[in-house]
Write a structure and sequence with these properties.
The protein is of the alpha+beta class and 356 residues long. It contains 17 helices and seven strands. Strand 6 (310-315) and strand 7 (319-324) form a beta hairpin. The protein binds glutamic acid.
Length: 356
């Protein structure tokens, strides 16, 4: 349904306030990774490295739950799970590996994989963009700064910040809303290797207070960078962020990307290898939003995170490491998640920048 002009103006006014408040919400980044990386222990087995990371950070209480989504604010901060899945299907885990939590922004990666497969690499680059924005994940200002009239880049920025993920969701094909949603959830389920389902409470909680994302969609539409109706796209995007997953699901999903798009447990080819490689490239550039550079510098792995507390890092050709822990740093990334993955990556000596 088209949004009347007067309503659009109200949203654009809201947008200016929201741009400023997104800065206030995400105050200057605390250096989660720079502070207390333990000495790597290269003698550890994979399970021992998982145990070490679990035990080292079990009592870490830093960070806070996402407060702008009421459902997430109530999450139990004590829950903490780590899972590794290798490309030959081996599983290593510790803690709350089977606890279900909302996927949030990690879902952007799987919708991206689908849209990339359908649209092709060039279209994605021209219609969405693949540059780091250097700004918070929900920045409306980045749309203006990326305006192609100024920089030659398309305003959505990249498919992992909200603007780009909303534009990506608007490219999901389907005759009806239900058909589009089915495509999104089926793609994610194929990555996880079993049917995933919507968490209706999270969806309702986000839909009740979604003005910021709607404002982003309307602004994109004004620049002709939203490819479907704004209200319908925001509904689809919000559903996409609201399905439940576990740390184990996430590790399987990541291992599918590590394995060139083939799910190591079901052996289904979910996407082709080229799509998988490009998704990982976008994750390396922007998966941890405005701290992606520091993450890559300290950990050396493409990763993606959600304000639900999940984080997933991929070691191409080897494995994925996934963590659930709800308290976040100011950029919106799980504190224990980052510390645990860093510790495991250092102990196992894995980085995409390593000689072998
Ligand atoms: N649904 C959340 C939002 O749009 C996702 C944010 C995130 O996980 O980083 O604000």
């Amino acid at each position: 349904m088209p949004i009347p002009m007067t309503k659009q103006k109200t949203f654009l006014k809201y947008l200016i306030v929201a741009s400023i408040s997104s800065y206030a919400f995400f105050s200057p980044t605390q250096k989660v990774l720079a502070r207390d990386a333990p000495q790597p222990n290269h003698t550890l087995t994979t399970q021992e490295a998982v145990n070490r990371a679990y035990n080292n950070y079990k009592s870490t209480t830093d960070g806070s739950n996402a407060s702008y989504i009421p459902y997430l604010e109530k999450a139990n901060k004590k829950l903490y799970g780590i899972v590794i899945v290798t490309i030959d299907g081996k599983i290593f885990k510790a803690g709350d590996s089977d606890y279900s939590f909302p996927v949030e922004s990690i879902s952007k990666v799987f919708t991206l994989a689908h849209v990339l497969k359908i649209q092709g690499a060039k279209n994605l680059q021209n219609k969405i963009g693949v540059n780091a924005t250097g700004l918070p994940f929900n920045s409306a200002l980045a749309i203006e700064l990326n305006n192609d009239k100024l920089t030659g880049s398309p305003p959505p920025g990249n498919p992992l910040v909200n603007a780009g993920a909303i534009a990506t969701a608007s490219l999901v094909e389907g005759k009806s809303f239900e058909e589009k949603w089915n495509t999104v959830i089926k793609t994610a389920s194929a990555f996880a290797g079993h049917p995933l389902s919507l968490n209706k409470d999270v969806y309702d909680s986000e839909m009740a207070d979604n003005q910021h994302n709607l404002a982003i969609a309307i602004l994109l539409k004004s620049y002709n960078y939203l490819y479907a109706d704004s209200t319908e796209t925001i509904d689809l995007y919000t559903r996409e962020c609201s399905y439940n997953i576990t740390a184990k699901d996430l590790a399987v999903m990541g291992a599918t990307l590590a394995n060139g798009g083939n799910n190591p447990l079901t052996h289904q080819n979910v996407v082709d290898e080229e799509t998988s490689m490009r998704v990982l490239a976008v994750m390396a550039t922007a998966g941890l939003y405005n701290t992606s550079g520091e993450w890559l510098y300290n950990v050396g792995l493409p990763a993606t995170s959600g304000v639900g507390g999940g984080i997933m890092a991929v070691v191409p050709g080897k494995m994925a490491i996934a963590v659930y822990s709800s308290p976040l740093d100011p950029a919106g990334n799980s504190v224990r998640g980052q510390l645990a993955i860093q510790s495991i990556a250092h102990d196992l000596g894995i980085s995409i920048f390593k000689k072998k």
